[in-house]
Specification:
The protein is mainly beta and 339 residues long. The chain is built from 2 helices and 23 strands. The chain folds into 3 domains: 25 residues, no CATH class; 192 residues; 110 residues, Immunoglobulins (Immunoglobulin-like).
């Protein structure tokens, strides 16, 4: 009898992919930042007093990080923690984009930077006395950069700003998170002389900031075999809306979203990010194509691995005029992909 239980345990251990996944010992992620704890960046970008810490067309934050040893890591990302996207009169986010750049010196001439986030992706700030969807705490956004952009011998300067002239004050621009720092080293600056591009030359480091550090970091990702699996993807379809639901299995899932395609080769994101389960989102048919298209769910973990569901066919609107709402379900056919 004991032998039977031992064999049963071993069978479950090796056949359960999620258990086996957790049993593998991959190196952890490495964050290079100005605080010792990434969880300490809680100031300004969630709620309450914002201290005018916005990222804008006329407001560029510059952070100096130390040289970075890259041995044992496969990919590098630069990023920031952002929140409180402002809304216009119809409660849609004020349109604008956030960019980042990295350099081994405090000047970013000729570097157009990398697109980091759109205002539609950043958690919203709720207007006073109003309730709107998409309000959440600040989130980290990351952009993949070539490994040779991360300098192992010199300091790494990262700039974050907006090329959008809609972001000119804390009343219309997203807020960058911050945390209290113990270091007295001069390693944070604010440049308020820019006009939509990162600063260049000797005057780039315009105003030194001490005591509080913006949430800007480098993330190094080791080689790993973690998988993001999407299960039970289904959609209830009517002439008015498409209600999609699904589940995500993986290690440290960061976000999920929906994508649209006409040919199953080129896909575009069509929903806001969902940061927590249960994963359910409603799409208005008025915001979707009238013709037939494909819909799939996607998700990403903290190692920047993506997973995708099998696609659903969303019929053209005119084909549903005399049909009751239907439910499509793709529960087992899923794919995953590592970036």
């Amino acid at each position: 009898m004991k032998k039977y239980y031992v064999n049963l345990f071993l069978s479950l251990f090796f056949l359960n992919p999620l258990y086996a996944q957790h049993s593998n010992k991959y190196p952890p992620l490495k964050y290079i930042m100005q605080l010792s704890d990434i969880g300490k960046y809680y100031l300004y970008a969630n709620s309450g007093f914002n201290a005018d810490w916005y990222v804008g067309y006329n407001n560029c934050w510059i952070v100096k990080l130390p040289p970075v040893k890259k041995d044992g890591f496969e990919r590098a990302y630069i990023g920031a923690k952002l929140g409180r996207a402002k809304l216009d009169k119809d409660f849609s986010p004020i349109e604008g984009k956030i960019y980042v750049a990295i350099s081994d010196r405090p000047s970013f001439g000729g570097n157009l930077g990398y697109f980091l986030a759109d205002s539609f992706e950043i958690p919203k700030e709720s207007p006073e006395n109003e309730s709107v969807s998409g309000v959440d705490s600040a989130k980290w956004f990351w952009f993949l950069v070539p490994m040779n952009q991360i300098n192992p011998e010199k300091d790494n300067y990262i700039a974050i700003w907006s090329p959008s002239d809609t972001f000119t004050s804390s009343k219309n621009a997203p807020i960058i998170a911050a945390g209290y720092g113990q270091s007295e080293e001069e390693n944070v600056w604010l440049n308020r002389s820019i006009k939509g591009s990162a600063p260049v030359g000797a005057n780039a480091l315009e105003m030194s900031i001490s005591g509080i550090k913006p949430a800007v970091a480098i993330k190094l990702v080791p080689k790993n075999e973690y998988r993001v699996i999407i299960k039970n993807f289904s959609a209830e379809i009517s002439n008015e809306e498409v209600v999609a639901t699904f589940s995500v299995v993986g290690v440290d899932i960061q976000k999920a979203w929906l994508e649209l395609s006409y040919d199953k080769f080129e896909w575009q994101k069509i929903s806001s990010f969902m940061y927590n389960p249960p994963y359910s989102i409603t799409l208005k048919r008025s915001d979707l194509p009238d013709e037939m298209f494909y819909l799939r769910a996607a998700a990403r973990d903290s190692y920047e691995n993506n997973g995708y569901s099998s696609e659903l066919i969303i019929p053209a609107v005119e084909k549903q005029s005399e049909v009751k709402p239907e439910v499509q379900n793709k529960s087992e056919e899923n794919t995953s992909e590592s970036k």
